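Repro case for the chain-ordering regression, as requested:
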Amino acid sequence: MTKKDVAGARTPPRAKRLPRAVRERQILDAAVRVFSERGYHAASMDEVSDVAGISKPMIYAYLGSKEELFAACIRREATRLMESIGGVVDVNLDPEEQLWRGVLAFFTFVGENRDSWQVLHRQAGTQGAPFAAELAEGRRAAVAMISALLDRAAGKEGVGAFAEGQTEPLAAALTGAGEALAEWWLEHPEESPKAMARRLMNLSWMGFGNLVLGRAWHPDKQPETA
Amino acid sequence: MTKKDVAGARTPPRAKRLPRAVRERQILDAAVRVFSERGYHAASMDEVSDVAGISKPMIYAYLGSKEELFAACIRREATRLMESIGGVVDVNLDPEEQLWRGVLAFFTFVGENRDSWQVLHRQAGTQGAPFAAELAEGRRAAVAMISALLDRAAGKEGVGAFAEGQTEPLAAALTGAGEALAEWWLEHPEESPKAMARRLMNLSWMGFGNLVLGRAWHPDKQPETA
DNA sequence: AGGCTTACCTACTGATGAGTAAGACTACTT
DNA sequence: AAGTAGTCTTACTCATCAGTAGGTAAGCCT
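-- result from build under test --
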């Protein structure tokens, strides 16, 4: 009991028998909680099993090693995030609107799934570990999505000028800005997802050059969702 | 010898006697190398002592615990980075020029001091550890610097419109974008610092809105340094 | 009923790694 | 030359934690 426990449930000894699929989900849920709070290295399998309300060998039987467990967390949460965003981006809309929707979806997801986002974000800089592949893949997919959007934007307006360099680094920069804002959000939880999304639009769509001149970005459509 | 060694120097047994100040620098140098490559948790004090070419108890005698050692690394490298940037930002210049110079200084520093930057960046998402204070402080200082710049920019042009929200989150977003670009740079080392800085200006000063219209940012002054 | 599968457990092993005890060598003082 | 302050080492201790061996019990078939 030297460290503060991760808040929450424990089940009494000899847990009820449950089908494997259910336990696997419970274990993954617990793992996301623990990994998001402690980070990969500082998290222990004992704590995961404790939070999951099950004994350690079950985790090994079902999910494999610590690394595999972590990779499974990453995969699951990355997929959820990407589907959240992918669900609202319609290629027929104009780029500005697509970007707005995607960005808003991102902050909405983060607001509603802090642990999911944290587990993805906290280990983001990790290299050399086997699960780095999962991390890199998730990031690559996100960047590719935005990059494609920017490419279409450049094409649509008939201007290749800003794609000259490739849009990929700019997409990477945008995700970085999004992550940093999400981090800032943790210390200012009173802000709405919409306000956060608006900030990112102001930076990424308008740029400081416009902002300095008093031209700020704001959602020009009717309010979408909360 | 299961893991690949951090490249480089070893000294023969019974190291030459050297004054404390010198050893402390050597230890910090080694620690930055190891921490930047492995991350805080995966780094071992044995490896640090090995790379430093000195025995472990010396590290404890001079720099204290692993956490204190890491904090010392963070402090030193953060200071170097901030001084690099602070050195080129002249408050009398207009904001655009200041931003350009600061951003260029950042990428120049990162290019010349990959380890320094990595040690600052890799653990950026860490919370709850004692050294998190150092990390947070470094970040806070960087954000404050940019934030102040933006405030002056807003004031100078006589427009408070974009400071309405506060500039702080935007400054945080900018640093995040910078970090992400620096990360991308690792996979594209052929790019020059200037090209990287230009990308960040395109995103943060012009914004996608302008870029889509074919209006890109470029340094309008004479070439600064390589 | 007996048998088989699957869920579940306690209690270990073995490795790694932070931190230290206790002393040895060197050089500078007086 | 003897003391002493500071540098440096080998060789431990001790805690933590990933992973496992070897079992118990619950349900589900005949």
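Ordering looks correct now. The CA atoms of residues 169 and 197 of chain B lie 20 Å apart.
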